[in-house]
């Protein structure tokens, strides 16, 4: 599961425990109970690097604990904080979420369907 570096750092620091992904298929590609690697590493072909290059990339193991189908505008202030957003510069966490979403996906005022994926860090003993 790929994340921008600053969002992956929020996962590592336990400030981000939820992510939203655009619905592209009828079933979410992630499954409750499974452990995934949250990473900032792009696909090696996209990065034009060798597949074994580390490039400062890192991963954090996470376990999916809940998945829900929602629309993007369903997000509330509390969930925006779970997305790793903080109130800053007179913007609420929810407003910062939309600013971040727009920077990553583009935001044209539409209300797309998303998978709300909640996760928790995997204990060191599980690695």
Describe the secondary structure blueprint for this structure.
Elements: H1 5-12, E1 18-22, E2 35-39, H2 44-47, E3 59-71, H3 77-82, H4 93-105, E4 113-121
Antiparallel strand pairs: 1-4, 2-3, 3-4
Describe this structure in words.
With 127 residues, the chain is of the alpha+beta class. Helix content is 24%, strand content 25%. It has 4 helices and 4 strands, in the order H-E-E-H-E-H-H-E. It has a 4-stranded antiparallel beta sheet, covered by helices on one side. The two termini are 17 Å apart.
The neighbouring-strand order within the major sheet is 1-4-3-2
Helix content: 10-25%
Mean pLDDT: 88
Q: Treating each run of at least 4 consecutive H or I residues as one helix, how many helices?
A: 4
Oligomeric status: single chain
Describe the global form.
globular
Uncertain residue ranges? none
C-alpha Rg (nearest Å): 15 Å
Q: What is the beta-strand fraction?
A: 25-35%
Termini gap: 17 Å
Largest sheet, in brief, is: 4 strands, antiparallel
Name the structural class. Answer: alpha+beta
Labels describing this entry:
127 residues, alpha+beta, four-stranded antiparallel β-sheet, 4 strands, 24% helix, 25% strand, globular
Task: Explain briefly what this protein structure is.
The protein has 127 residues and is of the alpha+beta class. It has helices at residues 5-12, 44-47, 77-82, 93-105; strands at 18-22, 35-39, 59-71, 113-121.
């Amino acid at each position: 599961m790929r994340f921008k570096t600053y969002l992956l750092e929020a996962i590592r620091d336990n400030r981000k425990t939820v992510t939203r992904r655009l619905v592209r298929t009828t079933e979410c590609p992630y499954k409750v109970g499974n452990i995934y690697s949250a990473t900032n590493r792009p696909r090696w072909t996209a990065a034009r690097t060798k597949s074994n290059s580390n490039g400062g990339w890192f991963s954090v193991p996470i376990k999916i604990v809940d998945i829900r189908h929602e629309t993007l505008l369903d997000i509330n202030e509390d969930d925006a904080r779970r997305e790793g957003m903080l109130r800053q510069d007179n913007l609420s966490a929810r407003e910062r979420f939309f600013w971040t979403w727009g920077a990553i996906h583009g935001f044209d005022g539409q209300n797309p369907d998303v998978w709300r994926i909640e996760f928790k860090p995997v204990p060191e003993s599980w690695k």
